Amino acid sequence: MTKSDADHGVGADDPHVKVSRLPPLPRPLDPIVAELFENTRKRGGHILNLHKVTGHAPKLTSAKRPFTYALRNDCDVARLYRELAICRTAINVECDYELHHHHPLALQAGLTQAQFNALRQWQAKAELFDAKQKAVLSFVDEMTLNKGQVSEATFKLLSDHFAPQEIIEIAYNSTSYYASGLFMKALAIEPDEPHKKAAPGKF
C-alpha cells in the first residue's frame, strides 16, 4: 500500500488486486477513484470488486455515480418494487453477482425469503405475489426477455397500479441493472467476500 492510498483510507479493502479479466487498479489510486471509494464507505458500503473494475475509467465512473445514487435514494416508487425489478432483471440476464448483492436489499425492502426463492419461476408460484408485484414482474420479463417489446395488455396492467413517474422509475431500475449485468458478466468480475455489502441507500 502506498502513502497516497493510505491517505485515502485504503487498507483492508485493497484495490490493487486482480478481480476480473482486467489487471488490478494502478498505484497510486487515481484521486477521483479514491474519492469515490471514500464516499462509498461513508454511505455504509464496502469497496466491491465491481468498484475495483469500474475504477479503471475514473471520469465515466464518477459521472455515473449520481444516477446510481438516485436509483437508490431519489425515486418515489416504493423500494420493494424497485428491488423486485432489479432481482428479476438479474435473473433474466443471468448475473449472479448482481442478484447476490440485491438479495439482502430486497428483503430489507419487504420481499419475503419465500418470494425471493420463487423469483426464478415466479409464474409457477404466482400466489406468493400480489397484483402490483405481478404487474412489475410481467413488465420486467417482457422488457428484458423480448428486447423491449412489451404488450399493451402488460403495460395496461402496470399502469393500473403505478403512476407514469413510477413506471419510468421501474423501467430505469430494470434497464440500468440489465446493462450492469451484461457489464459484470463480460468482464468476468469475481464474487465478493460474503461479508461485503453494497451501500444500502434509502428505504
CATH architecture of the largest domain: Up-down Bundle
Helix content: 55-70%
H/E element order: HHHHHHHHHH
Radius of gyration: 18 Å
List descriptors.
2 domains, elongated, 10 helices, single chain
What does this structure look like?
By secondary structure, the protein is mainly alpha-helical. The protein has 2 domains: 30-74, no CATH class; 79-186, AhpD-like (Up-down Bundle), CATH 1.20.1290. The protein is 60% helix and 0% strand. It contains 10 helices and no strands. Helix 5 (79-92) runs antiparallel to helix 6, helix 5 (79-92) packs parallel to helix 8 (131-145) and helix 5 packs parallel to helix 10 (164-186). The longest helix is centred in the last third of the chain and has 23 residues, at 164-186. Residues 1-12 have low confidence and may be disordered.
Question: What's a quick, concise take on this entry?
Answer:
The protein is mainly alpha-helical. It has helices at 3-7, 31-42, 49-54, 58-73, 79-92, 96-109, 113-118, 131-145, 152-161, 164-186. It has two domains: 30-74, no CATH class; 79-186, AhpD-like.
